[in-house]
Design brief:
By secondary structure, the protein is an alpha+beta fold. Helices cover 15% and strands 36% of the residues. The strands form nine sheets. It has an eight-stranded mixed β-sheet with strand order 30-31-34-33-35-36-37-38, sandwiched between helices. A hairpin with a 6-residue loop joins β8 (101-104) and β9 (111-112).
Amino acid sequence: MTSPRMTPYGSWKSPITSEMIVAETVGLGQIAIDGEDIYWIETRPVEGGRYVIRHWSPDRQAVDVTPSPFNARTLVHEYGGGSFVVAGGTIYFSNFSDQRIYHQTHVSQPRPITPEANLRYADGVIDRRRGRIICVREDHTNARGEVVNTLVSINLNGSDGCQVLVSGNDFYSSPKLSPDGSRLTWLTWNHPNMPWTQTELWVGEMMEDGSIGHTEQVAGVVNESIFQPEYSSDGTLYFVSDRNGWWNLYRWCDGRIEPLCKMEADFGVPQWIFGMSTYAFESANHIICCYAQQGIWHLASLNTQTGELEVIKTPYTSIDSLQASPGQAVFLGGSPTEFNSVIRFDLSTRKLKVLSRSSETTVDTDYLSMPQTIDFPTEQGLTAHAFFYAPKNRDYVAPPSERPPLLVMSHGGPTGAASSILNLMIQYWTSRGIAVVDVNYGGSTGYGRAYRQRLQGNWGIVDLDDCISSVRYLVAGDEVNHSQLAIRGGSAGGYTTLCALTFRNIFKAGASYFGLSDLEIFVKDTHKFESHYLDWLIGSYSEHRDLYRERSPINSIERLSCPVIFFQGLDDKIVPPNQAEIMFEALRKKGMPVAYIPFEGEQHGFRRAQNIKRALDSELYFYSKIFGFDLADPVEPVPIENL
């Protein structure tokens, strides 16, 4: 093996290319078990981001269920999730192009069971007793009014229209039927709450005609978030609640709520999409679950009679979409050295089997940077958290006197979390000699309710302070170059990015991916799900309009004094393109180096392979010009104004 070449940071040649990332990587999502068969969602950038349902059975390899051009993706809440349900080998799914529910078998073509209308469906459960599917419906037929969300029941053959079961509140999710079909449970919440701030858990009596009789609220008081209600096979209702400060497991027995396993750990996650699952029943008294501590996920087995929790050792640090049936558990798992994968866990042999990987790419670990968990001091005497990735490439070293550029990553949500899972988009940077810090700022998930609540009323302050504190911590430790600091983020992370570039002067460059720059426009022109989210993040608009203006980067462009590159989907309904366009034009007129790359046909988040590739390479090209390092490989130039 030859000795590493001495080359400046940023100029290292990497085997981890944008072509590799988009051509050989897929997204993995919602998992369902039907008898011995396992199904999941696969998102394919090379097919324009099409969502395909895949099927695995013990006697065959995984195959596609969803034929082209069908796309199993719902747009309820715009973010979707919970797009399919399967029972007895028949699959029911929402199709992206028309948002109708279709049904199909492995040998039949999809056929619609809902009418052509401006309606959307998600989060379905099969009512076998009555031959119906119960799901969330989002009604967009009133062009002038707010969309209407309800729980509805639809005949499985689509013969008798749609029956509204529950209505009147702003939002619904997680309909679940008791095993005998006599009770329906669901979650609901109203503006200005979000599902991770305050929700209610209800149970209703299912009448023989499929209507709802007597209803009762089980849980959900002020400042209590309920997540994932489930019935065990003996008809007991379980759910996750953060009533003790952490998302822990509870059950409802004889009108009483009983805690199962009190821990300073989160067994729940923010319900940004439908169909999320962190626990499932292997039997009436045996739960397979996962939980997060300090940003790391663990798999465990919980005895519901004794409350005993047995940690199951696995190589995975990220676990989600967990499902179970007698003898097995299936989940999405990944680690710093393993791509996100569909994993089947045999409960008798304790063996793990990989059913599908998000990437079949093989990367030598000598090119992979391992995340270091860092806890660092931040404002108000508090501590925040992040994953730090030092540059890593076996073929190169930098001159001893140099320190690497640092790229700060601000995750979206903002009620989300950075993950330690192997992510080639992070390794893309570190293998070229650029350090990365992925920040779990105050407000992130996985550290309890109090940590999430740091962001209440403080968006644009706490997240910003924590990102900057991570930089100061790394600079003080002589880990990075204080004169080559950049920050990037998408959506809410894009807002934090733009705030950092506008209101502070520590960064020398930044990249905003469909980032929010005008809070007032977001309040007035966004989708229903998030239309009151800022009430919690900042305050009521009617009472705190001054804060909305003060914390909007677009109102302080004169303070923005470093180069920025903007990436924007032109079909984005969550953050309209004009926000990026106004910022770009203002910086252009100001004489600041700036670039703007719009993408036709993209929404909030890029799904098409060519656009993901273009954005990643363009960002690298932009930094190379701003920081003055040569690229090892040619990259399609980006038009940069005022360079």
